[in-house]
Amino acid sequence: MTSLDKTGAADTLAGRPRRARARAGVPLPLLLPALLGLAFLVLPLVALLIRAPWRSLPEQLTSTEVWQALQLSLVCATSATALSLVVGVPLAWLLARADFPGRGLVRALVTLPLVLPPVVGGVALLLALGRNGVVGRWLDSWFGITLPFTTAGVILAETFVAMPFLVISVEGTLRAADRRYEEAAQTLGASRFTAFRRVTLPLIAPGIAAGAVLAWARALGEFGATITFAGNFPGRTQTMPLAVYLALQNDPAAAIALSLVLLAVSVAVLAGLRDRWVTAS
Amino acid sequence: MSDDHPMTDTAPAAPDPAPAPAPGNAGTNAPAAARPGAPADAGLDARLIVDRGSFRLDIELTAAPGDVVALLGPNGAGKTTALRALAGLVPLTGGRLRLDGTDLDRLPPEARPVGVVFQDYLLFPHLTALDNVAFGPRCRGAGKAEARAEAAAWLDRMGLADHAGAKPRHLSGGQAQRVALARALATHPRLLLLDEPLAALDARTRLEVRARLRRHLAAFEAVAVLVTHDPLDAMVLADRLVVVEHGRIVQEGTPADIARHPRTDYIAQLVGLNLYRGRADGHTVRLDSGPEITTSEELTGPVFVAFPPGAVTLHRDRPTGSSARNLWRCAIEGLEIHGDQIRADLTGELPLAADLTTAAAAELDLHPGAPVWATVKATQTHAYPA
Question: Fewer beta carbons below 10 Å: N end or C end of chain B?
Answer without folding.
Answer: N
